[in-house]
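Translate sequence into structure tokens.
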Amino acid sequence: MQLKNICFLTLLLFSIGANAQLFGPKRSNLNMELSDWKIFPGDTVTITWDVTINRKQLKVTLNDSVVDRSGSLQLVPDTTVFYRLTAETAKGKRVNRTKKIKVLPPLINRLSMSDSTRFGHQDEVRWMTENVEKVTFNGDEVPLSGDSVISIMHDQPVTIRAINKNGRFETRTETIHAWYTHRFDASGLPPKDTLIVFGGKEVKLNWELDDASNAKLNGKTVRLKGFQTDTIRKDTTFVLQSILHDGSEWEKSITFLKNTVGVQHLSISNIFNKSVPFTFYNEAIRKYNPYKLQWNVSGVNSVKIKETHRPSSGILADQAMEEKDYTISWSYYDAMGRIREDSTSISLALQQRPLFNGNIRTETLLESDTIFMEIISVNYDNYPPETELKVIAIDGQGNFVKGLADDKQIKEDNPFHTVIKKYEDKTYPVRNFSVKEYEIGETEYRPQHLMMVLDYSGSMEYSMPELEPLIHKLIKEKHPMDTIRFVKFDETITAVSPPSANPDSLLSYFNQKGMEELSGYTALYAATDSAMNAMHTNNPNQRIILFTDGYENASFIYKNHLNTSAVEIIRRANEISLPIHVVSLGGYVNEQVLKYVADYTGAHYYQMNDVESVSEALREIFKTNLHYYTINYETSNNYEREKTITLEYDGKATGINYSTKNAAKKPNLRKISQQDLPPLPADVELLLQKENLVPLTGPQNMINFRFDKHHIREECTHDITQYLQVLQEEPETKAIIMGHTDMTGDPEYCITLSRKRAEAAAQKLIDAGIRSDRLFILGMGQKHPLWPDDSEPAKAAENRRVEILFVE
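Result follows.
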């Protein structure tokens, strides 16, 4: 038993050793070798193998083909291939050995070109190859990688062949398609068959025909490629014709239409002028006369006049109340098809009446002379039942025309045609009226009582030195019985001087009361009201003459005891029947509102561009009270005081003319209030639009500051009190606080400093109980000075300020 076990163990160990030799980790008994493992197509590879396994029943295969235990094989593979040598026993036990033969084929890695190219043009072909020794491009040998430029005269095939050392190859063929152009266009203009160009425009025609045998332009033989320049003076068509190589006909045309967009006629003329001879005609129109604006813009459907859409041609009638500009704009498509805008302007110029300076009899007037009549005032002393107009008649040289009311003159050729009353857009002509001429002689003379209200604000710096000598002259030349009083103002108001007829006393008082410095602010309305308070009620021989050249910007500080707006001034003047003549100097005035003040108080507005003309205006103010016509007529209703009154009269050489006076004792105060504002800074306008606010006043000076400071001095806090009171009494009112600096220093720094000043002023209001959401703060820096040149310390001090603008 023991011997049997020993024999079995010996046999088992022998079996394990044999199997270990066949299938163990050492595989040297199964060998396979390659002569080269990486080849090119066409190369020969020898594979050898040797199996040294001691088994009688052993099957050896090479890629599943039975082979001897040892051997070799020559191969010419075209593609990468794997060879596996396998030894398998009768019991199915296997051992494998694998080798890879990598075949590197000829490759065309890149072949690039355009899909199509214009006939006659060149194209570039690029290629890259790999594993080759030779490359041909359409049969010609070329570098293994590179590029070539070819001319395209037809559809062009491109063949690249990449060949290795054994003659094996890869071929790729692509085609570049040729395309043909038959171009006919105009330089710089869109490719359209019909083009609109301005008359006289020079156009350049270009053409190019690829696949053609000939070409003709408007019947004239031309080259297949060329250009021609022409000037378009009328509608013109150009036709290009050609015979193509395939025998077909080709034709294209371009039509140029002369653009007639533009102003054909624009004029301002008297409404009775039926024949305006010029394309552009601008006739000066007498004030109050009707006139017509006539236009014709061709090539457009509509135009805009003062931002209102109108037909492309038409007539607009109006009454000449003030000089104005009309801007006519239109849009159209230009030759490029883009929308363009254009505009032009024409101005309504008023024919100015000469100032009253002499007399002339009507019999001595020539047929070529003209007459200006003007309603000076409307008298309601006997209303109802009668209304009286005070009228002057002046010729072209400034002479008062005498004798127009003579019985003979009235009977033969009445120069006073009609009085036209207007109420609620309805007119009521009056033809039954009486005309009288008044010339006040020495025995009938009644003393005139004159109050001069003189603007000494900063903007009068250059005018006042010239104006004062004229006032001296007026004082010396006045009628001995006339009295004069003075009020001078800037942001402060002097006491009203006592009335005096003595020239020496007047000169002495006027000179003594002169303001030492011209300030930057204008309490215009408060000063006028102060003057009215010193006048007598309903004295027909008293009047105010207001001299100014600026906007109101400082009256609000007098709100508690004086009137501070144009509306209040007009209402107060009408209560005491006091005319306020206004003499404005220069261009920076609130002309519309000052005209209202004069017109609605029965006085006259004089716009003077030089001081010398002021002397003539002052003489006229006195003369119109000494020589005039009256027109009296009966009233037939209770609306007389609500009308405008127009006098239709014969102006001799100029025919029918008109003079209009606003006779309403209750003027449109809202309209006046809306216009009683100076131009506001752009920053303020943007804020008003953003917050949907409406200004109630012009900017009022609130407080001034020391140089480079933003703290409010204790002694200046009282300057804020009156503005605080307004905000306390009117809780719905808000305020814009605007800080300013002088013209010294860096602009960016000044913006910051000015805002700090505005914030300091606003904080005083907040500390007194005003909610912060009622206040808007702006730092204006140096952008809006009172004095652009503030090299003088006093002017710089006035620029360093905070202003307040009340809004709602």
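Note: Confidence is low (pLDDT under 50) at residues 1-28.
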